[in-house]
């Protein structure tokens, strides 16, 4: 490469670049060196050459050249790595936080597709270190969140970024912190604030063979995962002291189970024998139930007593339900949920609130009701978009939130209990009060629920209000404990059938030729769809389970037929 002098005022940048390929060889100690030639504009203000020839000659009387071979050698800046997680639904995806402090203008930059909360982490980290008397070095700090094509959301990246910066500053031993994954939000004084997703992150850390560092208040939640090394710290200083050997953070104990309030008892319900029977069948077979009746008939009262009939969650179900609630930030004090959840959204809720979504694709009510009950009172008052959004999750048991970059799926195997009035005024078909706009009032109101959605309701029952005489003189009904015992026995009977190889209630049970012919005739007469026929047979199978009978009889099928939607719209 040639070394060209710049000596004339007419030596413009264009002429310079055109002539820089001169092949004049170098000799002496400069031979074999690499050079970067700088145009004169780089040495002058406002990209203009000096006005006076004297000033020009003073600036460029010598050949302008920088020798890369003669610049001082600097060792490459080391890269420190810490670990955390990003969340896609209930799945914790490992994220590596790479921190490099290198020579250059003072800057603190976070790259790797961070959202606004992650981008603001640099200011929280700076303030937290300053509260401990530590200042960031006047150098260039670069934080990379890998993989770079995965969106990083949430303030829980504060802690792993801070640990990486401290390790790069040689305040923490990088080898020790590399064996942990961490998550937590930093306050300006260095305190660790609770974040969402500690339980799935702890499960992910256990799968990766890493320890976990989390806020002190969430140590009990993380302990349920089985991770051996858990550091539940109140602040950033406690973590520093632990790794430097001046303080020991004890391993947290698993938090207790969530304490639910006393469940209402079914004994409070007087009369309503048909509705009570429907509630028992729905509890035993996890069937969807639609309650129709005038205002004050007791629809909401019946629905509120369903959780008292359901058995506790199994260990795997406890983990599934608690993980979803952890992602949503709804685990109180890290206590796992052991009872089937009961969700009761308002009829003004949006589609994102019910089915999931929002800026960060959070789980909706149908996912929060996973392995539990979703009660939707005033069913037709929900928007059409909300009602239609229920159809696919009711079949698949999953709720998918579509985004431009990805599709996020949450579990949503819930039992739907819906309640509604027969018409807008609520009194269509009641003996003591007349609907003044019948039948148009009822037709328009009922039409808000589409046929495909109604077809997915396994049991439809009309709730007639109890008379004053029944309320005052009728003895208390059977209590929840007695009904729950029958429900548990029916589920155990069903489980025994599964283990023996028989297909479960979720598939169409086998029928004897006589019962199959009866079901065919009933389906033709009631004009049931294939889905409606299948769901009717499932209900009959549950009725047989409650009776501890292996085969479905015509009596079981007849009772199931009594709960089909034809009784309402016929």
TrEMBL record:
- Family of this protein: Belongs to the Mg-chelatase subunits D/I family. ComM subfamily.
Q: Which segments constitute the MCM C-terminal AAA(+) ATPase domain?
A: 364-463
Q: Tell me the GO molecular function terms.
A: ATP binding; DNA binding
Region entry Disordered: which residue ranges? 1-27, 494-513
Origin organism is Granulibacter bethesdensis
Q: Which Pfam families match?
A: ChlI (PF13541), Mg_chelatase (PF01078), Mg_chelatase_C (PF13335)
Q: Write the protein's name.
A: ATPase related to magnesium chelatase subunit ChlI
Polar residues: compositionally biased ranges: 9-25
Which top-level group of life is the source organism from?
Bacteria
InterPro entries xref list: AAA+_ATPase, CHLI-like, MCM_dom, Mg_chelat-rel, Mg_chelat-rel_C, Mg_chelatse_chII-like_cat_dom, P-loop_NTPase, Ribosomal_Su5_D2-typ_SF
Q: Which UniProt keywords apply?
A: ATP-binding, Nucleotide-binding
List all membrane-crossing ranges.
Answer: none
């Amino acid at each position: 490469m040639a070394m060209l002098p710049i000596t004339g005022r007419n030596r413009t940048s264009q002429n310079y670049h055109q002539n820089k390929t001169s092949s004049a060889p170098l000799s002496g100690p400069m031979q074999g060196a690499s050079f970067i030639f700088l145009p004169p504009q780089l040495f002058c203000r406002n990209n203009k050459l000096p006005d006076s020839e004297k000033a020009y000659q003073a600036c460029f009387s010598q050949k302008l050249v920088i020798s890369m071979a003669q610049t001082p050698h600097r060792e490459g800046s080391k890269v420190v790595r810490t670990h955390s997680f990003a969340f896609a639904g209930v799945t914790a995806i490992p994220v590596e936080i790479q921190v490099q402090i290198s020579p250059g203008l003072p800057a603190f930059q976070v790259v790797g597709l961070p959202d606004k909360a992650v981008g603001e982490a640099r200011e929280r980290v700076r303030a937290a270190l300053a509260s401990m008397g530590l200042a960031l070095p006047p150098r260039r700090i670069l934080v990379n969140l890998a993989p770079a094509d995965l969106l990083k959301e949430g303030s829980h990246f504060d802690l792993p970024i801070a640990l990486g910066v401290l390790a790069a500053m040689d305040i923490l031993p990088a080898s020790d912190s590399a064996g942990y994954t961490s998550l937590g939000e930093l306050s300006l004084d260095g305190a660790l604030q609770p974040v969402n997703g500690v339980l799935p992150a702890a499960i992910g850390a256990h799968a990766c063979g890493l320890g976990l560092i989390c806020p002190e208040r969430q140590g009990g939640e993380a302990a349920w995962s089985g991770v051996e090394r858990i550091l539940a710290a109140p602040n950033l200083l406690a973590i520093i002291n632990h790794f430097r050997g001046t303080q020991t953070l004890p391993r947290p104990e698993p938090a207790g189970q969530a304490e639910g309030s006393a469940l209402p008892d079914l004994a409070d319900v007087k009369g309503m024998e048909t509705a009570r029977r429907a509630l028992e069948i729905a509890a035993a077979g996890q069937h969807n139930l639609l309650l129709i009746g005038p205002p004050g008939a007791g629809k909401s009262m019946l629905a509120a007593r369903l959780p008292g009939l359901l058995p506790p969650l199994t260990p795997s179900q406890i983990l599934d339900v608690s993980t979803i609630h952890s992602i949503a930030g709804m685990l109180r004090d890290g206590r796992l949920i052991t009872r089937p959840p009961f969700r009761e959204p308002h009829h003004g809720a949006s589609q994102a609130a019910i089915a999931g979504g929002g800026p960060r694709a959070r789980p909706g009510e149908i996912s929060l009701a996973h392995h539990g009950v979703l009660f939707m009172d005033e069913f037709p008052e929900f928007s059409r978009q909300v009602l239609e959004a229920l159809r696919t999750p009711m079949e698949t048991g999953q709720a998918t939130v579509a985004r431009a970059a990805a599709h996020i799926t949450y579990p949503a195997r819930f039992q739907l209990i819906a309640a509604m009035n027969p018409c807008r005024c609520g009194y269509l078909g009641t003996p003591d009060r007349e609907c003044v706009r019948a039948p148009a009032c009822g037709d328009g109101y009922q039409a808000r629920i589409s046929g495909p959605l109604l077809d997915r309701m396994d049991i439809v029952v009309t709730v007639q209000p109890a008379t004053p005489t029944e309320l005052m003189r009728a003895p208390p009904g059977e209590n929840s404990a007695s009904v729950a015992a029958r429900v548990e026995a029916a589920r155990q009977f069903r489980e025994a059938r599964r283990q023996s190889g028989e297909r479960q209630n979720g598939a169409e049970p086998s029928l004897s030729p006589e019962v199959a012919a009866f079901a065919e005739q009933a389906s033709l007469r009631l004009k049931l769809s294939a889905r409606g026929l299948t769901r009717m047979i499932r209900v009959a199978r549950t009725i047989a389970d409650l009776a501890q009978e292996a085969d479905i009889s015509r009596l079981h099928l007849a009772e199931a037929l009594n709960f089909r939607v034809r009784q309402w719209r016929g």
